[in-house]
Specification:
This protein has helices spanning 2-32, 39-57, 65-82, 92-114, 139-161, 163-173, 175-180, 185-210, 218-232, 237-257, 263-277; strands at 129-132, 135-138. By secondary structure, it is mainly α.
Length: 287
């Protein structure tokens, strides 16, 4: 029973990190109708940025998250205005090809710049734990979970309560009506993509504190984010939390009871079931 409790806690902590990883992908997909296959590569770049801030400037990985978010927001804004804005209303196949090409280019540029060596962000408190009875919670994983959930809820409030958030939602629902109310789509699209990539950067910084990073993690993370966004539902940021938690817990249980190599199999098996039973996601709106 103690082992099961430990595994459930590990799954919940992993799920929180998954949620912040997928949030940017879901935002861009829901508003711009772009399935960003380079999303995982941007998470990888965010992880390397956080690693450099920690190793060369001595900035704590959690305190460096705002810097990572701002830099990656700028990268995302420039990419959308310079590249993706040219095909934002083109058939989805075109955007898939462009984002896939970006993923390949970013991966190989990262290999040239950083080499293929594995790297980790290890602050001085990385080995500390919090004990709750028989359950031991690593401090770094707990902090990463807290930041991830706080940012996801903050994004939900941002979309509901702010003028920019309401404009983003209005554009996603009806572009023509949003234009009639004075929304400038190109700037709004760039802001949305920038926010999505900024969130990916933060997710990368948190990922680097709990796992190893190398230039090739992007494709796997993109697939995970895709599954989480589908399971949770694209039109509700809180659904991404649910999707992340579901995936994290199922992966942990599958690894415990079936084997270490079956975590991904279980995750994508759940994705297939959700697509069959409830295609709009667990918290998505039904047609």
């Amino acid at each position: 029973m103690d082992l099961l409790a430990q595994v459930l806690i590990n799954g919940i902590l992993l799920g929180g990190l998954y949620a912040i990883m997928a949030l940017g992908l879901a935002l861009v997909w829901g508003v711009l109708n772009i399935v960003n296959l380079a999303h995982g590569a941007f998470i990888m770049l965010g992880a390397y940025l956080a690693w450099h801030l920690y190793v060369y400037l001595g900035i704590d990985p959690f305190l460096g998250l705002p810097i990572t978010a701002i830099v990656m927001f700028g990268v995302g804004y420039a990419v959308q205005r310079g590249i993706l804005n040219l095909v934002v209303r083109a058939p989805m196949f075109n955007t898939l090809l462009i984002t896939f090409g970006m993923e390949v280019v970013l991966t190989y540029l990262a290999q040239l710049a950083f080499s293929a060596d594995f790297r980790t962000i290890n602050p001085s408190y990385a080995g500390t734990n919090v004990a709750l009875g028989p359950v031991v919670i690593p401090t770094v994983r707990l902090a990463a979970f807290g930041v991830a959930i706080a940012l996801t809820v903050a994004m939900w409030l941002f979309l509901l309560r702010t003028k920019l958030g309401r404009a983003i939602r209005a554009t996603a629902q009806n572009l023509v009506a949003a234009r009639l109310y004075g929304v400038e789509p190109r700037h709004l699209y760039a802001m949305t993509f920038g926010i999505g990539i900024g969130l990916a950067g933060v997710a990368g910084g948190l990922y680097g504190t709990v796992s190893q990073i190398n230039p090739y993690i992007g494709a796997t993370l993109t697939a995970k984010c895709f599954a989480i966004a589908i399971i949770g539902g694209l039109d509700n940021p809180l659904g991404v939390i649910v999707g992340g938690l579901v995936l994290g817990i199922i992966e942990s249980l599958a690894i415990l009871y079936i084997g270490a190599t079956f975590g991904d199999v279980a995750s994508f098996g759940v994705l297939v079931l959700v697509l069959i039973i409830r295609p709009s996601g667990l918290l998505g709106r039904t047609a």
